[in-house]
Amino acid sequence: MTINVTHHGNDQMGAPTVHKGLLGDCPAPECQDRVTQAQEKWGAYCPHGLRIVEKDPEKTGPAGLPVERIVHPWPCAADGCTREEFERKEAEMENEYWASLMDEVRQ
After folding, report:
1. Dist. CA 91–CA 66, nearest whole Å
2. Region 81-85: what's the mean pLDDT?
3. 45 phi and psi angles, rounded to 5 deg
């Protein structure tokens, strides 16, 4: 987890502590709660608030990073909110990203 925090609090025994560093390395219950919440919310969401991309529990990428997959069946029934439309927009954003990198190289 790459969230850095600095906080004052108490450890499990009630002793005052100061933590500065990665959220996932902090033993404080409030930090562990935030780690769990972030892991549960991981993914992409449609404009209507439904998760449309989730972690693939059967795969991991390089260095143990999660691999994403599109939720099946598609969870949103709103007009215009389809898997095809999502994939089209994703491809469009990726093409724009690569085009901007190529523009920087050409300058």
Report:
1. 20
2. 94
3. -125, 145
Contacts 24+ apart (CB under 8 A), 41-44: 42/66, 43/68, 44/68
Predicted local confidence at residue 1, as pLDDT: 42
Instruction: Give the DSSP letter of residue 52.
Output: E
Average of per-residue pLDDT across 78-87: 94
Query: Cα–Cα distance between 25 and 40 in angstroms, integer?
Result: 18
CB 33 within 8 A of CB 40: no
Does 93 score more than 60 pLDDT?
yes
Extract the tokens encoding 89.
């927009």
Taking the C-alpha atoms of residue 66 and residue 1, their distance in angstroms, rounded to an integer, is 12
Q: Is the pTM of this model over 0.70?
A: no
Contact of 28 with 19, CB cutoff 8 Å? yes
Q: Please, which residues have CB within 8 angstroms of residue 53's CB and are 6 or more apart in sequence?
A: 43, 44, 68, 69, 70, 71
